Every structure is written in structure tokens, then in C-alpha cells.
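anyone else get weird line breaks when pasting these?? whatever heres mine. first is seq + C-alpha cells for prot A
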Amino acid sequence: MSASGGHEPLYVSVIGGSDADQPTMAAAQEVGRLLAEHGAVVVTGGRSGVAEAASKGAVLAGGVAVGILPGPDRAEANPWVSVAVCTGMGETRNALVVMNGDAVIALDGGFGTLSEIGHALVAGRTVVGLGAWELRRGGTAEGSIVRAASPAAAVEAALGAAFRRRRGG
């Protein structure tokens, strides 16, 4: 089944570290591939690490990878970005990365990824975590990040959330 259902495609932001380990990179590439196979557009920060791996997976599967770049030069995009969007906003562009997804998949990552998770949650986007941050409030686990145990489970959860968001539910 296509994520778009014959209409405008769903957009899923994939976020994570720019210096990720090999298992995280493999998971990100698989996430990108699966999203593209379901007809979704992959949105990333457009540079290295998780962004590059997810973009590669999407493009190799025949999909589209949008990279929302921090600087003013498209040349900073990784070679797998289909559409490069220059912002000149530095890390402030993190909000734009997640705002352009109907849902978000977070893999690993540091404080930049954490800021993207925060922006996504404030904006009402579902965040699916695959080895990503866990949030606590007052020492108690905060259940705002949907946990996934595999790339396939992360994609399924994100596409379901994206579809519900588009349908207004």
C-alpha cells in the first residue's frame, strides 16, 4: 500500500546524529528505503550521518530525499539529497526539518537531535524513537516518544501517525 494512497505523498522526517555508528547508519538506510517503498518523501537535515544514510536508502529505492540545510550553499548537501533547501539559519533550521514531516523518526543522536525532538513534540508531530533519546519529567518516564524495536516497526508507526495527522485524526 502506498503511503500517499494516490494523493499527495506523506512526508516523514528522519533525524539523528551526524556522526553515527555503523548499526545506526544501517538502520537509517533501511528506514529511508522502507519509507520510499511506501511512497513517502524522506526529509532530513541533508548532511552526514543519519541524514545521509536515510537519504541514500530512499533514493536507491526510487524515492525522494529532501535535505533542509543549515547554510546558504547547496554544495553542503550529501550526494543522496534529491532536493536541497538552503536556509542560512544554522542549527535553528532544526525546527524546519521536523515541521516538514507529517511524522518523525529519531535514531540515536546528540543535542541537535534532542532539539529536533522537542520542536516536533511542541508542533504536535509524532516522534518514533529507534535507539533515540528517552525523556523523563520529574524522574518519571515521559511517554511522548513512541518506541520502535526495528526499522520496519519505526516506519510502520511513523506512516500510521502521518496518515492520521493528514486525515485530521
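and prot B, same format (seq, then C-alpha cells)
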Amino acid sequence: MSQGSNFVDYVKICCRSGKGGAGSAHLHRDKHTAKGGPDGGDGGRGGHVIVKGNAQLWTLLHLKYRKHVIAGDGERGGSALCTGKTGRDEILEVPLGTIAKDAETGEVIFEITEDGETKILTDGGRGGLGNWHFKSATQQTPRFAQPGEPGQEHWNILELKLLADVGLVGFPNAGKSTLLSVVSAAKPEIADYAFTTIVPNLGIVAYRNSRSFVMADIPGIIEGASKGKGLGFRFLRHIERNSVLLFMIPADTNRTIKQEYEILLHELKEYNPELVHKPRVLAITKSDLLDDELQQEMKAELPEGIPAVFISAVAQQGLDPLKDLLWKEINQQ
């Protein structure tokens, strides 16, 4: 399968919970008892549709073609106060960082952030009460019981927002995939044309003393991405879950470093104003193309108030200072 078809971060599914079983209106009878009292049991609960976090998953691909999820119905109550069997729950395993929304209103229902965490997406119907609940001094043999509650049916959206310590932000061909491939074991596609990366990639970056952090390579943003241009709009949601944003601007850009940085920052702000409050680090990539004099000139033109480092992933220059800077920013959060 191609790189693009392997990564799915948005699915829309119809979830139907099970209906509750009816309570029993049974009256006790045996060879020693001709007219016993009520002993009808309760109906079983209908099955829930449950979402469960799984740290081994990183995509919603396994749910892409599953449009209808139907839980089992609860069974009716029995005699001798026997409760009916609970309906079968349907469990949807999802990657960490998945948000569940109501498809009609867009309201966020919950989010899954921990391995093994479970949340009920659609509640099963409650089972009906048996007739023994309704006995009283004036009504000793009730011949009625509650019906079970119906199940619910909703269209829901599951949307994945990658969880990472560092998110790489930059225009196409800024060197994001190259950096990720050098500092981690990730193997993103790398080529000399725009939009080589068409899905986010995650890599674990080894740091000093056996420590590590997670880095996410987000597909390239272009000017106007927040308005839906290019691939950036589709994947801007993944930047929301990163602790630190690493802005990557190549040394051979046609604009100044400051201009390109401000364009990237503007696109993030247009998409979600809260993103500008995240810690930011600036990396000037492809710095092996610069001599010392050019590098000093560029330092004077860098945007103020943001820590910056010159790096070259290909020549492996400046990578340790970059890791030190990122680790410091991560641990300040």
C-alpha cells in the first residue's frame, strides 16, 4: 500500500448500541407452590459502543471501511429472579490522541490520551425491571414488567491528532523529513520535489543518558494553508498536540528568514490562535551551504525572542545543540 493510503486520521462511523432486554413478569410456580409470588428477573443491559486507547496504533486505517458498528441486544429477564444476559459490547481500539465528535453538531464528546483508557461512545439501553420490583402490600402479584430501553444510533467522527513532544513546522523541502531520518530510526520518503511527505511521520529521538523524546514531521505548509490550500490545512490539526514547535527554514530560501518565519506563524495563528502560545524554536537548515561570514549576517536578521540554531542534517552539523535546546524547552512545560 502507498504511504498515503496507510495513514488515516479521520473516519465517520454510525454507532448503534444494543437495546435493553425486557423484564420478566413471571410468577413462581413449582410442585410445592401453586400460587407463588412474583419472581421475574430484570432484563439485561444493551451493549455499549466503547472506544479504547491502544499505544500500538498510530492510524485509524483499521476503521476506514467499517461504517456501521452495531452492539448486541440485552436478553430478557428470566424466572427465579434471573437477570438477562448483557448485550455484547463493541470496542473500537484507536491511537492515542483520538478525539470523538458528534457528526451533526461537531461537539467534542471526549478524547483518548492514555493506553488502555476506555470511554463509552454510545450507551446501551437499560434493561427493564422484572415484576418483583413492583410487588406491594396492595399488589402482591403484579403481572407486568418494564420493557427494555431502546438503543441509540448516532453518526460519530473519530479524528486523530498526533501526540508528540516536538512538531516540525516548515514549507515543503525545508529539510524536515531529512532531519527526522537522521536523528531517529524513522524512514520518511525524501526527494527534491515539493510535498514529498504527504502524511505525518513520527520518530523517537535518542538523547543523552538514555533519554528520548518524540518528534513529528508534519506535511509542508504553504502560504494560505489555513484557508485550505495545499496539504497543510488537512494536517494542521496534528500541530495542536505537540508540546514544542520547531520552525525549520532553509538557508537558501528566496525570502529572508524573518519573512518566512512570520508567514508560517501567520498560518498557524489563522488556523488556531492558541498555537502561537506554544514554545517555539527556530532551526536554519542546510547551513552547510553557508560560510562563517554569511552565517553571521543571517544571525543579525533572525526574528527576535525565539531561540535559533544553524543545522545541517546531511552534514550532521549542529544536531546536538538542537537536541539540547529542544530538551530544555520540552522540560520547561
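btw re prot B: The two ends are 38 Å apart (CA to CA). Residues 1-5 have pLDDT under 50 and may be disordered.
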